[in-house]
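thought: fold this chain, then report.
action: predict
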Amino acid sequence: MKLLRKLYYRLRPGQRRLARRLFFFPIDLVDSLLKKRPHLVPPRGRIFTGQGDFAGMGDNYLDLLVRLCGLQPNHYVLDVGCGIGRLARPLAGFLNIKGRYAGFDIVPDGIHWCNKHYRQHPHFSFLHIPLKNDLYNLNTEAGAASFRFPYENEAFDLVVLLSVFTHMQPEEVENYLGEISRVLKPGGCCFSTSFLITERSENYLDQSAEPFFPYRHADYFLHNPRVKNANIAYRYPFLRQMIAKAGLEVEAIREGWWAGRDKVDCPDFQDVVICRKPA
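observation:
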């Protein structure tokens, strides 16, 4: 597994997605012929974010958003790094006609697929934003550190980032937090998953024979120095400072099972951070 991951990261972003499509082509072909694929679930070879059960994970996130963030059917939701619709799929059956969903991503493949398959949901919109990222997109020089979200001030009740900060450098995270604060309504919520370096998780890494984050910097750890945006873990005090600078308040932290915790006690593989914009 470790060798395969190293080989995977030696490929360019487009080559990685092509390799996945080729690997899953036989399964996807059979699913298409037998019409086994559920509505709004893409072929496995098209999925480039997350692992495991695409529909099951999306349903779990919707449940967390309702329970932890108070998501309502009439809310306006922004899905940052929406991928190929992992969260959009369950929201399509949850948001009513008064609700709205907007998602954007730097990978065009997922956006094109969603724009094609969500035509029956006019209150859903998907945008391709070409930004440079050494894991997902090398075809532009535009950076996330200066990107302004293409939405009005105080437009959303909820902003969701599923494993987005996991693939961003500190100055990019800081800018996104500022933009999240700008587009959130007063009292609005931000739900994000990422890897947090706490005393407990750092001890777990110290005791690991092959730690997932072996390359350490002052405020963050890297999984692979060749592809720096592959996986990044932030020290929680550093991330909390950036959150406060953006004018947001940390409401809750839920640890993930990536750092050795019992899976039944965790909402997700990654750590969950819930922030709120003061009313």
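thought: worth noting. Strands lie at 76-80, 100-105, 124-128, 156-162, 184-197, 215-216, 220-222, 232-235, 249-254, 271-276.
final: tokens above.
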